[in-house]
């Protein structure tokens, strides 16, 4: 089983549907896609006169942003991707983390991040049912507030959602697809293997910042939860198993 998280900028690559079709054909019923859409969300916020704010690569989400988030991620972005995958011959079906409580989440830090959440429960039975029916799940990370008696939505970072899903379904591999080949070092080179110690150094020295720092943290969380392999790569990494940065927890590297 592979879980692939596709970032917003990678979604703009016209080769995405074809590459994903090749990946699906290689292992039908064993692939799950989680998508982001941060650029679309930021553009919509700015169009409404709101300036996006991020802390540690994660979006600060006001209560007023939640409806906008649903519209952009679970509506526009999710359906746009599903439509392009269907056109490429992939039996895609769109679903959000709210649907069937697929992703149950809790608020991380209301004061700092607002209505941003972290996953605490994945509805594995629902996800497995979609896979068993022969569909490719395409998941918006907008999640269900599992700690509120009134429910509601929470903004879960796509990388965090993908890591939690990969751990819950026992995925063999998690791919975090970005718009760069992998994690870059101080000289701009792509790092092939990233240990936990090296990752902390990159983040502490602000070589890995923003969204890339968040990706590294999500990768490490997935590994700690039992995912066998995590790779940060660009779109070509979908069909090239050696491309990108392999993330490991310690100095011992097992590929």
Description:
With 255 residues, this protein is α/β, with parallel strands linked by helices. The chain has one domain: 3-Layer(aba) Sandwich (Carbamate kinase), CATH 3.40.1160.10. The chain is 36% helix and 24% strand. The protein is built from 8 helices and 13 strands. Strands 1, 2, 5, 6, 7, 8, 9, 10, 11, 12 and 13 form an 11-stranded mixed sheet that branches. The protein has a two-stranded antiparallel ribbon with strand order 3-4. A hairpin with a 7-residue loop joins strand 8 and strand 9. Helix 1 packs across helix 3 and helix 6 runs parallel beside helix 8. The longest helix is centred in the first third of the chain and has 23 residues. The protein is globular. The mean pLDDT is 92.
In short:
With 255 residues, the protein is α/β, with parallel strands linked by helices.
- Which descriptor suits the 3D outline? globular
CATH topological fold name: Carbamate kinase
Q: Measure the end-to-end span.
A: 16 Å
Mean pLDDT: 92
Low-confidence stretches: none
Helicity level, as a percent range?
A: 25-40%
Q: Give the amount of beta strand, in percent.
A: 15-25%
- What class, by secondary structure content? alpha/beta
CATH superfamily: Acetylglutamate kinase-like
Please tag this protein with its features.
alpha/beta; Carbamate kinase; two-stranded antiparallel ribbon; 255 residues; globular
């Amino acid at each position: 089983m592979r879980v692939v998280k596709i970032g917003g900028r990678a979604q703009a690559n016209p080769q995405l549907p074809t590459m994903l079709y090749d990946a699906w054909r290689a292992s039908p019923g064993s692939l799950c896609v989680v998508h982001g859409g941060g650029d679309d969300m930021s553009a919509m916020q700015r169009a409404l006169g709101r300036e996006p704010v991020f802390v540690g690569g994660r979006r600060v989400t006001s209560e007023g942003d939640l409806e906008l988030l649903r519209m952009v991620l679970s509506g526009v972005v999710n359906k746009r991707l599903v439509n392009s995958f269907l056109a490429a011959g992939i039996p895609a079906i769109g679903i959000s983390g709210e649907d069937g409580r697929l992703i149950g989440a809790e608020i991380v830090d209301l004061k700092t991040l607002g209505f941003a959440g972290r996953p605490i429960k994945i509805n594995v039975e629902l996800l497995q049912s979609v896979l068993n029916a022969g569909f490719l799940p395409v998941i918006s990370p907008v999640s269900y507030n599992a700690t509120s008696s009134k429910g509601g939505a929470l903004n879960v970072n796509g990388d965090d959602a993908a890591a939690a899903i990969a751990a819950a379904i026992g995925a063999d591999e998690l791919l975090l697809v970005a718009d760069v080949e992998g994690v870059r070092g101080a000289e701009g080179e792509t790092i092939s293997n990233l240990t936990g110690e090296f990752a902390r150094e990159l983040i502490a020295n602000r070589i890995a910042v923003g969204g890339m720092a968040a990706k590294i943290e999500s990768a490490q969380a997935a590994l700690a939860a039992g995912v066998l392999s995590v790779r940060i790569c660009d779109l070509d990494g979908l069909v090239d198993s050696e491309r990108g940065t392999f993330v490991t927890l310690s100095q011992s590297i097992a590929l």
